[in-house]
Amino acid sequence: MAQQSTRRTVLGGVGTGIAALAGCLGDDDPSGDGTEAITVARSEASQDGEWQPYGGVVPYYTNIFEPLVGTTQEMEPAPVLATDWERENESTWRFDLREDVTFHDGSVFTADAVVSTFDTLINHWDATGWINVDTGGVTAVDDHTVEFETTEPFPALPGTISHDYFGIIHPDTDEDAGVVLGTGPFQFVNRDGHDVTVEPYEDHWDSTPTTERLAFNVVDDGTTRTTALESGDVDLAIDPPQSDVGRLEDDPETAVETQRTPRTCFGGVNIYKEPTDDEMLRRALCYAVNQEQLVETVLEGVGDPARGPISPEIPWAAHDELPGMGPDRDRARELVAESSYDGETLTILIDGSEPDDRAVAEILQNWFEEINVESEIRSVESAAFYETFTDGEAHVSIVAFGSNSAASDYLIRAVFHSEGSDNQQLYESEGTGIMNLGSEVDDLIEGGYLAESADQKADLYGEVQERVVEQGVVIPLYYLEYTLARRASLPAPELHPIDKHTDFTELERGE
Amino acid sequence: MSASRLRSAHRAFRQECLTHPTILALCRNPSAVAGGVVVTALAVLAIVGPFVTPYDPTTQHLENQLQAPSLAHPLGTDQLGRDVATRVVYGARLTLGIALLVTVVRLTIGVVVGLVAGYVGGWVDEALMRVVDVLLAFPGIVLALVVAGILGPSLTNLVLALAVVGWTRYARVVRSSVLEVRERPFVAASRLTGASRWRVVRRHVLPNVAGPVVVLATLDLGGVILAAAGLSFLGLGAQPPAPEWGTMLATGRHHLREASWLVNAPGLAIVFAVLGSNLLGDGLRDALDPTDRTGDARTEVARRD
Domain range spanning residue B137? Predict the structure, then answer.
């Protein structure tokens, strides 16, 4: 006889189903061995093939791989797998390697692993133009010494190779076989799609993490990361939306930490396109902007008003020496009246996938209107943004850029040098560019790039920053901060200016 | 024409309208009436609303950001302190305008292609229908995304992207109606009397395909509203600060937890617009379909029996 479905049995079934589903979703024990993972929601997903040298694991946050050189809290190079380094001549560097290091499979770390790692990664990332080392440019002198031969004099080499991309990888690492071998404090346990679980490596040369197990879950959407944290599905959420920060701070179950990053958001002005080729108009645009109001309105206070294009987190930033240019709309209107501006509509270019940029552009448009400058917003998708920007199609482009390593020289070179990546195309084809002021600034950048002392570098790069600010090449907006939200029962991890270097080694779940 | 003759002509026209079987059938269908009311209300809102609201849809008041609904701002304010109700009202003008324009462009292209293919026949028909087949082989919204992505984000390109992908259904419907109509005796008779091809199409074929096309256009309207809002949501349509419903949704979702009104207002507007046009379209289809009406009559007779 067929059993009749009553409301109670139906509701009971639905309830059981939901409970079962919740049980599956809340599974903190992927290994099944009883250890509970601290779950971190992050946004970086492993794209097909992109992270193949690292066994398919994004080398951020996880601490599976370690570079030769690390980055201090002050954004300076510091020893990690290399104990010391020395520049032997203009283009040769010698790195002494730590001798007490083993990979996660127990094999000894030697110079051969450094050579094979750099051969693979220079090739994979096409990185010769970045680190100035060709494939084959790294050689083993002995088991614990390597030499780097740079393609040109490059004093910033140690800091440049402190990027997460240059973590040392065991040659047996194989994405297809699920073998991921580094030397870091955490070792790979498993990967489920984009999600990765790691556990402490007991024989780490420095110290063994006290965190029992870490599960990195990829949750693209910021609001969903917040919801997952609030519901207890995850223990930490990296970069929840600013609009959620206040609520997370007020909730006794959650806590929030913020940290300024070496990243700046600014309006990059095309100085070769009419009418922003007029310095008077560019300065007027700068005077129209109220950076403090932007931080309060768009970032909800999570950020700092900018005075220049380089974040004060970077050692040679000239923030303190730069003149503040506003807000002074009367002065801005006077400058507009004195300029050659004749009612043209300026184009403000934004990356459509960045919600903050959209709000910033709308506010800038409003402020420009107040100083009698017409503008329109052009939103393009992420993939097309850079090309549209370097093609010089916009007058003002909202750009956020910063450094993920202890050498930030490439930032100033990329943006303000005539042969930097942002200007190169138009400079070579038409003799112009976007934000390159010309040969004098090029010389200053080259001088800073080759400077042996920090003071000399700061002087030369400082002058570049003063010039680009005074001549309205950039409209400084804000220095970015990142946010890490956690369950209040967890201790706060140690934050680093580079968010990807957050230290998760001492997280123990409290009561 | 004298005033009395004008009045009597108006009376006769009204009488004819009110007793027209299609109008009568439409009025007897509660869903269609509901759909008609919603669509009319939104159209009135789009036309009259901007004259009623005291706010400008794009002027920012940063000191007023994210205010909850109140008497001064019945639907609250957005991140830049703009009145959400005002933006929804102006958005009705923009969104419905886009939807109407796209539908008219689709309809025009589709009717012309369908007429030519159906009436001329032969290799012309074959060629045009293969083009239609190719376009139909792609999912419409994906193709629209590609076109909008290539052309770049703007309102004009949004209309173009949606028009390019949506005319094929009209062409199919019109072609099949033409194939049927052109074989009817009165069309043959008209041809025999020496009527030109254009006259036959205009006087005999077009009026006979108008019904299905109107139904299709009304049903299509909802889909176009949804697609236009979707593309704008993805940043491929209206650009800020335009108060388009999809763009408002895209901006508002970042404040979903703290200011849900930013999403609720444009979201509900889209729901009502799509639902209204779909209900009206369904009602029109039933009213214009003689088979269906016969069916209804039979059912009514059966019920009475």
Answer: 10-304
**Cα–Cα distance, A473 to A479 (Å, whole number):** 17
Task: Evaluate whether residue B5 is within a structural domain.
Answer: no
Indicate the pLDDT class of residue B192, thresholds 50, 70 and 90.
confident
The token duo for B242 is 């335009």
- % residues pLDDT > 70 (chain A): 93
Nearest to A363 among B80, B256, B258 (CB): B80
Q: How far apart are CA A120 and CA A205, in angstroms?
A: 25
What is the rounded CA–CA span in Å between residue A465 and residue A444?
10
For residues A129 and A154, give the distance between their C-alpha atoms in angstroms, rounded to a whole number.
Answer: 11
CB atoms closer than 10 angstroms to residue A179:
14
Q: Tell me: the pLDDT tens digits for B74-94?
A: 999 999 999 999 999 999 999
- Rg value, chain B, Cα: 23
Half-sphere exposure in the Cβ direction for B116 (13 Å, CA) = 11
Which structure tokens are listed for B131?
């083009």
Question: Which CATH superfamily does the domain covering A40-62+173-259+482-501 fall into?
Answer: Periplasmic binding protein-like II (3.40.190.10)
Scanning B5-64 for CB atoms below 8 A from A yields 59-60, 62
Strands A82-89, A77-79: pairing is: unpaired
- CB-based contact B239 A378, cutoff 8 Å: yes
- Comparing alpha-carbon positions, the chain A residue that sits nearest to B253 is A223
Instruction: Record the tokens describing residue A137, joined without a space.
Output: 């440019």
Q: What does the pLDDT look like over B207-264, one tens digit per residue?
A: 888 888 888 898 889 999 999 999 888 888 888 888 999 999 988 888 888 899 999 9
Are the Cβ atoms of B239 and A244 closer than 8 angstroms?
no
Q: Where in chain A is the domain with CATH 3.90.76.10?
A: 69-153
The count of domains in chain B is 1
In this predicted structure, the answer to whether residue A48 has a pLDDT above a threshold of 80 is no
Yes or no: say if A204 and A85 are a contact pair by the CB < 8 Å rule: no
Tell me which fold the domain A261-480 belongs to.
Dipeptide-binding Protein; domain 3 (3.10.105)
* Any domain includes B1: no
Helix (H) / strand (E) element for A11: namely: helix A7-25
**Where does chain A hold its CATH 3.10.105.10 domain(s)?**
261-480
pTM of the model: 0.80
- With CB atoms and an 8 Å threshold, state whether A352 touches B153: yes
Q: Which SS3 state, helix, strand or coil, does residue B107 take?
A: helix
Asked whether residue B4 is domain-assigned, the answer is: no
Cβ pair B257:A359 closer than 8 A: no
Segment A161-205, tens digit of pLDDT = 999 999 999 999 998 888 999 999 999 999 888 899 999 999 999
Contact A41, A229 (CB under 8 A): yes
CB count within 10 Å of CB B270 equals: 23
**Chain B residues 240-279 within an 8 A CB cutoff of chain A:** 240-241, 251, 253-259
ipTM above 0.90, yes or no: no
Optimal mutation site among B257, B260, B262, B263, interface A, most CBs of chain A within 10 A: B257
Q: Count Cβ–Cβ pairs < 8 Å, chain A vs chain B.
A: 63
Q: What is the pLDDT of residue A27?
A: 46
Fold of A69-153: Dipeptide-binding Protein; domain 1 (3.90.76)
User: Domain of B60: which CATH number?
Assistant: 1.10.3720.10
What lies within 8 Å, CB to CB, of B303 at 6+ separation is: none
Within chain A, all domains assigned CATH 3.40.190.10 are found at 40-62+173-259+482-501
- CB distance B80–A376 less than 8 Å? no
For residue B268, is it within any domain? yes
Given a contact cutoff of 8 angstroms between Cβ atoms, the answer to whether A296 and A354 are in contact is no
pLDDT (tens digit, 9 = 90+) per residue, B11-32? 766 666 556 667 777 777 888 8
Residues in chain A closer than 8 A to B59 (CB atoms)? 366
**Measured in whole angstroms, how far is the alpha carbon of residue A97 from the centre of its chain?**
27
